[in-house]
Amino acid sequence: MDAQKQLFREEAYELLTVLEGALLDLEQNPGDGENIGKVFRAMHTLKGSGAMFGFDDIAAFTHTIETVYNMVRDGELAVTQELVSLTLKACDQIRAMLDASLTDSTADTSRTAVLAKEFQKYIPAGDNDDTQENGNGHRESSSAPQARLMTYRIRFSPHRDLFANGTNPIPLLNELKGMGECTMSCSVQDLPELQEMDPEACYASWDIILTTSAGEDVIRGIFIFVEDISDLSLEVIQNGTAFDSDIEYKKVGEILLDRGVISQDDLDKALGSQKRIGEVLLDEGMVDRAQIGSALAEQEQIRAIRKKRAAVEESSSIRVPAPKLDDLVNLVGELVTIQARLTQHAAQRDDPDLVGIAEEVERLSSALRDIAMGIRMLPIGTLFSKYKRLVRDLSHELNKDIGLVMEGEETELDKAMIDKLSDPLVHLIRNCIDHGIESTSERVASGKLSQGTITVSARHSGAYVLISITDDGKGLDTEAIRAKAVEKGLIPPDATLDEHEIQGLIFVPGFSTSSAVTSVSGRGVGMDVVKTGIEGLGGRVEISSAKGHGTTITLKLPLTLAIIDGLLVAIGNEFFIIPLGVVVECVDLTADDIKHAHGRQLIKVREEIIPYINLRRHFGLTSERPPIEQVVITELGGFRIGFVVDKVVGQHQTVIKNLGRMLKEIDGVSGATIMGDGTVALILDVNKLVGQAEVGEATASNGAGAQAGLKMTSSINKSAA
Amino acid sequence: MGRTILSVDDSASIRQMVMFTLTKEGYTVVEAVDGRDALDKVKATPVDMVITDLNMPHVDGIDLIQALRADPAFKFVPIVMLTTENTAERKDAGKHAGATGWIVKPFKPEQLVAVVKKLLG
Fold first, then answer.
1. In B, which residues are within 8 Å of A47 by CB distance?
2. What is the largest CA-CA distance in chain B?
């Protein structure tokens, strides 16, 4: 039942999203019957399914709303802004109820009551009957089970039109049979002459003797669906004998026997012969071709149904818990790794057979990998549709008129990626609404359409997905950004930056263009958080803006989080992976470099001072330091930092594996990967390492040098130099 | 013996419950998300029984029952309606359209099985 509840919850969350979409459309176009229907049905489903799976609070709450929307559907009530707003609030409340059910708590019931009351106001008194009795076809016995066996004589005489509504009397009779010992006899005395007979009418009636412990109402309950199209008489007789015969008929001979076409003797005789039973019976003149054909057709029917079932099983979809897919992807990842090892091995051995097998395995495993990855792909539209509500609420709050346009909603992306994109996108859209799009009066004054537009679009580009958020607002004011950056001490006043570099400044930590903190954006977290978040996903953020015409922010993201391109590095016998997305270059670190830095962990690369972290020291590795080390220089969140390693091994397709519960709190390591030869390499969390180093340097150094180096952005360094 | 049942409901959780319950009983269940989908599905797959919700988008349950009954292939196929309203009018409307029986939501899996067995055996 818990699994069923979970499924309902998932479904309900989806329904709420649909509901919100329909409500927002409805607000634009209050007479739209299709959306009214959608809202009504969503409420109806929440009510019906909610009650089924024990969400009684939701069922009761949605019942009232359903009633209101039924009136809307029937044209008795008009859709108003207030009603839409109220319903949206109700959606939030239902969501709260669902959330609460996860933790076995209950949502704020007083709020539910207040909202329900608001809806009640729309319902004229008297129309409001909340009575819901339960009366299913299968009646539950009202009388206590009788221990004493009773024998009944039952006469069941269906009307001629019994078959017309799809009723088959046989299962009903079988149901009776199942209740106890039972004998039945079928009377066909009403059967007319063939030429007068209506083949679709029921002429038979049945006499049944039943010995059972069940009560009379249970027996009558069996016939509940046909009580209006049959006569049923039932009397109790004290004693009765019974026998039961139940044979399964499968073979042609048995089918014919069952149909009364042939007798058991005929069948036995035919079975004694070596020929096919149908031919024997035909030769003997016991049956005609039509009868055989019909029996064969019956067999065929069963085969067809079986085939059909197989086909249905293929085409239907199933819901699978996400962790199972993660396991699958994990295993496939390992398989791919092993396969790479096999291929390498085969090539070294110079064994043509082995090479052939390795190639086959490679082909299979890459197909398997594609499929496994494909399973986790979801259309990004599921994420986009959430933002409709966001845009509506915020634009109302700020008194702006803003429309949201979505493009490429069908673009597929790894589910894990979609989950992690949610927050950064919210932030970006908020920024568009708050800072990007001007107020209606400003827009009109500058000759723009009074309604601003935010376009969210997604599209594939090779192994990447590009998501762009575009607004047609005022664009970035480079002068203002520059002035602010100087004021905040992010750049020296005399720095020469081109327009693109200035726009890039909004991603620098500590930068916020809005001087006043509003409730919408500018809550102390800036665009740098978005940038770091996206880079954490192995993606990149780009910005382009034209003053007065709007801004486009483009996120370039890998299709999946499960496999990343990494740079494999070694320290002694330990291997580490640095996500290739953040790596800028690799340079040697010689004893001279160290000497010139005067004890500080800084390296000069083409006149640029770059701080570095010595990973050997950081991780407390005791292996011997080689005479020439290498620095992998990474760029993250706008500034560069190097990592000192013994040697750079090369690029490596990395299948990310979690470290497991025991090790997941370890900072600086985001996961691990298993290499071809079985060695484990840790994947470095560059973001965290930089954070740790920043804290370390800030407390350790006496000022200028290292800290300043960390804070300065590369672009500034470059242009200042 | 595998009998095929068409489960028509716009609620995935109800469909899932019907599927789960009836598959366990040895029936084959085909799903349709509304009346229109159901009419498409029966073109491709003959079914032995139909269990349909009444309130659905595109083609609702009553219309579906009428459409199926008008089809000679469905003249004698049992059709059960799932209804949230347990009123005589609702049942009569369904029976008038040609429904064989009804199940009132919320229902327990055992009730569903009982009704299916009653009509299909």
1. 84
2. 36
Give the residue among A9, A14, A8, A656 at the shortest CA–CA distance from A326. A656
Specify the pLDDT at position A296: 66
How far apart are alpha carbons A544 and A534 in whole angstroms? Answer: 17
Nearest residue on chain B to A299, alpha-carbon basis: B1
For tokens 């959608």, what's the residue?
A38
Give percent of chain A with pLDDT exceeding 70: 80
* B34, closest residue in chain A (CA to CA): A41
Distance separating alpha carbons of residues A579 and A473, to the nearest angstrom = 36
Mean pLDDT (chain A, rounded): 77
* Cis peptide bond N-terminal to B106, omega within 30: yes
Q: How far is CA B117 from the centre of its chain?
A: 13
Residue A382 has pLDDT above 60, yes or no: yes
The three-state secondary structure class of B117 is helix
State phi, psi for A233 to the nearest 5 degrees.
-120, 145
Residue type, A112: T
Residues from chain B that touch A174, judged by Cβ atoms under 8 A, are 117, 121
Report the C-alpha gap between A11 and A46 in whole angstroms: 9
Residues of B in Cβ contact (< 8 Å) with A39? none
| pTM over cut 0.90 | no
- CB atoms A45 and B77 under 8 Å: no
What is the reported pLDDT for A689?
82
Per-residue model confidence (pLDDT) at position A470: 92
Task: Report H helices in A454-553.
Answer: 478-487, 499-504, 527-536
Q: Which residues, 6 or more positions from A352, have their beta carbon under 8 angstroms from its beta carbon? A: none
